[in-house]
Amino acid sequence: MRILLADDHALFRDGLASLVGAWGHEVVALAGSGDDAVRMVDATRPDLVLMDIKLTGGMNGIEAATKIYQRFNIPVVFVTALIDHSHLDQAVK
Q1: pLDDT > 70? residue 85
Q2: Among candidate residues 22, 78, 75, the one with its CA nearest the CA of residue 46
Q3: How confident is the model over 19-43, as pLDDT tens digits?
Q4: Is residue 12 within a helix (H) or strand (E), and if so which, with residue range?
Q5: Distance between CA atoms of 71 and 13, rounded to whole angstroms?
Q6: Which residues does 58 contact at the CB level (< 8 Å), separation at least 6?
Q7: Strand 76-78, strand 48-51: pairing
C-alpha cells in the first residue's frame, strides 16, 4: 500500500514512516502541514493518508483531510494523541 504521512512533528513523522515501511508499505511522501499534504497527495496519489488532526501552518488536519477526500477520494486515517472531543467529532464527520 502507498501511504502519505502528515504530521508537524518531524520526529514522530519519521518514526511512523519507519514503522509503516517495516510493515511492508511504501511511504510515498512526508508532509509537515495540511497545505503540504494536499499538494503531495496531488503529486503522488497515495492509496491512504495517515494524518495528525492538529497540524500547524495553514490548514489543520481536518481541513486538509476534507480537501483530500473531496478532490481525490483518497481515505484519510487520523493519527493523534489529541483528546479533544470537538476535534474528534469533526474528524468523524
Answers
A1: no
A2: 75
A3: 999 999 999 999 999 999 999 999 9
A4: helix 10-22
A5: 24
A6: 33, 34, 35
A7: parallel
Q: How many CB atoms lie within 10 A of CB 42?
A: 12
Closest alpha carbon to 6 in 50, 39, 59 = 50
- Measure the CA–CA gap between 82 and 69, rounded to whole angstroms: 22
Exposed e or buried b per residue across 64-90, where buried means at least 16 C-beta atoms within 10 angstroms of its C-beta: bbbbbeeeeebebebbbeeeeeebeeb
For the chain, give the number of residues: 93
Q: Who contacts 27 (Cβ-Cβ below 8 Å, separation ≥6)?
A: 3, 4, 5, 17, 20, 21
